[in-house]
Write a structure and sequence with these properties.
85 residues; mainly alpha; 55% helix; elongated
Length: 85
């Protein structure tokens, strides 16, 4: 996906808040002349612009559907006791 497409997509309320807070950190750091704050604000601003803010974007955490267990499989389960003396 193109970087400009990532910036234009996924605008939710939380993304507006994250971009606003990153901009606020960056603006206040520039006005005070604090170099570490400028880096921190720039990081938060760029990070909030190019990410969706969710872990599972792009099916990154896809889990397959659970197996169907029928009643016969559950009834015929053999258990082995471990560590019994």
């Amino acid at each position: 996906m193109n970087i400009f497409d990532r910036i234009k997509s996924g605008w939710t309320t939380l993304k507006f808040i994250r971009v606003g807070l990153g901009s606020l950190i960056l603006y206040s750091s520039i006005s005070e002349g604090q170099v570490p704050g400028i880096f921190l604000g720039g990081f938060f601003l760029v990070f909030s612009l190019v990410t969706d803010g969710v872990c599972c974007a792009g099916n990154a955490c896809y889990t397959p559907p659970a197996r169907n267990l029928n009643q016969k499989t559950v009834e015929n389960t053999d258990y082995e006791e471990l560590g019994a003396k």
